[in-house]
């Protein structure tokens, strides 16, 4: 079985992605399995750059083909930010609720409600050999925060052609349409072909 390192310490992501990989007879190991806790600084300007910084770091450290992901939300009324700073942007508010209120207010000011989530996955399989897989989901910012599933910005994001926020959809439903699952599917198709 082919071994592959997923450069992440995020247990929820690891469990989710391990499940998908088992179906395809690919053995996925994570940073936890190798007791690696150091991570490089994610100072790229784009999702692609940050994912590549991590996958190259993991490959150079272990010699095992390695992939890493980077995701975030881009919001029209915030000039398509926070993007790569999505996690920091949310954490800078005193609560998620305060962040959601501020985002919703910005969409009301100029009635720009478009937004999208993007994931970039970088796979480093040999020294200096790298492939990028992108996934994107278009949608809009809701008029109020709704739903209790998911994480991050899910309560204020309504996918295109839906009436509910991502946080009102079950995990299974979200995984069927999400930016992350689109990018992971592309990665798997590359690996099994
Ligand atoms: P990460 O690169 O996957 O860790 O994502 C960075 C940040 O983007 C997260 O901390 C969330 O705030 C946001 N984010 C990424 N993906 C999602 C999603 O599927 N739903 C909601 N928020 C997300």
Helix content: 25-40%
| Fraction of residues in β-strands | 25-35%
CATH topology: Maf protein
Distance between the termini: 15 Å
Which ions, cofactors or small ligands are bound in this entry? inosinic acid
Number of strands: 7
Number of domains: 1
Q: Which CATH top level class fits? A: Alpha Beta
Strand count, sense and barrel status of the largest sheet are:
7 strands, mixed
Query: What is the CA-atom radius of gyration, in angstroms?
Result: 17 Å
Layout of secondary structure:
Blueprint: E1 2-6, H1 11-22, E2 26-30, H2 47-62, E3 66-75, E4 81-82, H3 86-91, H4 96-110, E5 114-126, E6 129-141, E7 157-159, H5 171-177, H6 179-192
Describe the structure.
This protein has 193 residues and is α/β, with parallel strands linked by helices. The chain has one domain (3-192): Maf protein. Helix content is 36%, strand content 26%. The chain contains six helices and seven strands. It has helices at 11-22, 47-62, 86-91, 96-110, 171-177, 179-192; strands at 2-6, 26-30, 66-75, 81-82, 114-126, 129-141, 157-159. Strands 1, 2, 3, 4, 5, 6 and 7 form a seven-stranded mixed sheet that branches. A hairpin with a 2-residue loop joins strand 5 and strand 6. The longest helix is centred in the first third of the chain and has 16 residues, at 47-62. The radius of gyration is 17 Å and the shape is globular. The mean pLDDT is 93. Bound molecules: inosinic acid. Inosinic acid binds at residues 70-73, 86-87, 90, 117, 150-154, 178, 180.
């Amino acid at each position: 079985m082919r071994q592959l390192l997923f450069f992440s310490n995020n247990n929820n992501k690891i469990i989710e992605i391990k499940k998908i990989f088992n179906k395809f007879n690919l053995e996925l190991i994570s940073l936890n399995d190798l007791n690696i806790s150091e991570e490089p600084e994610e100072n790229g300007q784009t999702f692609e750059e940050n994912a590549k910084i991590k996958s190259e770091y993991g490959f150079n450290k272990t010699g095992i083909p390695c992939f890493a992901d980077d995701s975030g939300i881009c919001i029209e009324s915030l000039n398509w930010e926070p993007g790569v700073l999505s996690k920091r942007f949310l954490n800078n508010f005193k609560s998620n609720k305060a962040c959601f209120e501020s985002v919703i207010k910005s969409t009301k000011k100029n009635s720009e409600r478009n937004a999208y989530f993007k994931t970039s996955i970088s796979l480093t399989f040999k020294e200096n050999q790298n492939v990028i897989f992108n996934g994107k989901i278009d949608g809009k910012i809701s008029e109020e925060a709704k739903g209790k599933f998911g994480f991050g910005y899910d309560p204020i994001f309504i996918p295109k052609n839906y009436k509910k926020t991502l946080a009102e959809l079950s995990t299974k439903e979200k995984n069927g349409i999400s930016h992350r699952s689109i990018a992971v599917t592309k990665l798997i198709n590359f690996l099994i072909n």
